[in-house]
Amino acid sequence: MLVLSRQRDESIMIGDNIVVTIVDIRGDKVRLGINAPSEIPVHRQEVYEAIQRENLQASALAPEETQGLGKLAARRTAK
Amino acid sequence: MRINTTRFGRIDVDAADLLTFPSGLPGLEHCREWALLADADNDALGWLQSTARGDIAIAVVSPRRFVPQYQVRIPRSELTPLRLHDIRQAQLVVVVGKNRTGLTLNLKAPIVINLEDRTGRQVVASGDLPMQHQLDTNLTALKKSA
To answer: Which residues of B, range 63-122, sit inside 8 Å of A by Cβ?
Structure first.
């Protein structure tokens, strides 16, 4: 992993169109500003990892486990 | 195309009914091509079946059917890769999961499908939405037995 030291208000560039700026540093918290093209999604890593976990669990679901859904849908439709 | 699936047996899918997820799904990045199947017993439910892996399928539902108040805002950066020209060509579904209490819906990361060119992408919606919205499927079962 490339490790760079930066101070507040300094930036790094990733490729030629992504700029990450150190906006603020307070104690053990760093605030980052990210300038990236609109087609590049930026996520907190823990959110992405949580989605990965959810998908992997979901991909193990068996059709018979979803029976409750049908009843729930029918009840909602009947309302 | 013929897929040997663990859940549905051997199925034949029209090439025109396949969906391409150029980025795969988080956690299942290698699964790029999926068939969207209707559930035989439950019209509220669909299955995204991987064409490459017969053992991988994900249950999806239209969220409004179960969470009528669900409103979703999706950042432009998440939708740009789908190249949607017309928002009416977009279909939104959410993944059905399960925890100890019962079935859940991932309202934070819905799947958007571009019906025009049949591509799909799981996006991260803005705001405070649960990844495990609990459905009261157990309550339904209790009521039935009461």
So the answer is: 65-66, 68, 75-78, 80-81, 95-98, 102-103, 106, 108-109, 122
Q: Express each pLDDT in B92-108 by its tens digit.
A: 999 999 999 999 999 99
- How large is the ipTM? 0.88
Residue B78 CA to residue B21 CA, distance in Å, equals 13
pLDDT, tens digit, for every residue of B32-59?
999 999 888 888 899 999 999 999 999 9
Return the beta strands (E) in B1-146 as ranges: 2-5, 9-12, 18-20, 33-38, 45-50, 57-61, 90-98, 103-105, 111-114, 119-122, 133-134
Rounded distance, CA B115 to CA B92, Å? 10
For B123, list phi and psi in degrees, rounded to 5.
-115, 165
Continuous H helices in A29-66: 45-58
Q: Does A40 touch chain B (CB under 8 A)?
A: yes
User: How close, in Å, is residue B14 to chain A by CA atoms?
Assistant: 22
> How many Å lie between the alpha carbon of A79 and the closest alpha carbon of chain B?
12
